[in-house]
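Q: what sequence does this backbone want?
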């Protein structure tokens, strides 16, 4: 070896700096679940031919006089279903003959339609072939008062005519807004509800469940800590985390692996 020559140890050992390993680990943590979700989301009939029939999860108003609030999530249409879900809120007052469904949708907004829609479908209908998952439910005494506050939150939603697929505001931004306004719902949105971390006019807010808090920069970088949701890291609108109350991993695209969330 020539005098004064000092070998580069990293070249000989094949080691990489810790920041590189950290970046690779984060990339795998976010991208591998998305890949798995994409593989399992292909196929199916065209969206216009897919089922939009009731799923049977909302009690029949004819036999259920009590007030009801339900929040649902279902896989989005087409390729977007590999990444996320669409969420909405359905309410029925005591003695009412029907439900009212509130949600935000992007279809037609570029042609002047409002993003905030009322009664686009029934309360628990399949979302173009995807069976909805019940995220939260309240029934009975005191629920009419919650519906009053839900409807106030709907009126106060700051983006009624705006829809941005990523990072928001979108359907999940709206549902998270309702959850924060009515923390009694204890609404924990799925990890793949992209847009839930888009905070209207702020970088800090109460978590949608009302059991903790979060900080988020335009929905692309943030952290959430709450009893109901657990610990979540948001990077570029994608969420990884862990639910400590009902042990489970939260992963991009996939959503949840572990114990089922309770309603």
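A:
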């Amino acid at each position: 070896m020539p005098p004064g020559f000092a070998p580069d140890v990293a070249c000989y050992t094949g080691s990489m700096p810790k920041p590189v390993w950290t970046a690779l680990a984060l990339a795998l943590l976010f991208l591998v679940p998305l890949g798995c979700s994409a593989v399992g989301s292909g196929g199916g009939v065209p969206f216009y031919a897919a089922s939009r029939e009731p799923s049977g999860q909302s009690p029949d108003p004819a036999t259920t006089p009590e007030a009801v609030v339900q929040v649902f999530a279902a896989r989005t249409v087409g390729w977007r279903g590999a990444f996320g879900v669409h969420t909405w809120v359905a309410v029925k007052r005591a003695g009412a003959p029907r439900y009212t469904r509130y949600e935000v949708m992007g279809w037609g907004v570029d042609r002047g339609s409002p993003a905030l829609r009322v009664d686009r479908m029934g309360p628990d209908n399949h979302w173009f072939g995807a069976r909805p998952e019940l995220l939260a439910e309240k029934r009975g005494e005191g629920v009419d008062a919650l519906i009053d506050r839900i409807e106030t939150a709907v009126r106060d939603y700051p983006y009624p005519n705006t829809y941005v697929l990523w990072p928001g505001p979108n359907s999940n931004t709206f549902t998270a807004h309702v959850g924060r306004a009515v923390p009694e719902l204890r609404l924990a949105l799925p990890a793949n509800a992209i847009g839930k971390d888009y905070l209207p006019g702020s970088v800090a807010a109460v978590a949608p469940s009302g059991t903790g808090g979060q900080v988020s920069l335009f929905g692309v970088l943030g952290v959430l800590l709450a009893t109901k949701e657990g610990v979540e890291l948001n990077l570029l609108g994608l969420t990884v985390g862990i639910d400590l109350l009902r042990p489970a991993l939260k992963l991009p695209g996939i959503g949840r692996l572990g114990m089922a969330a309770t309603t």
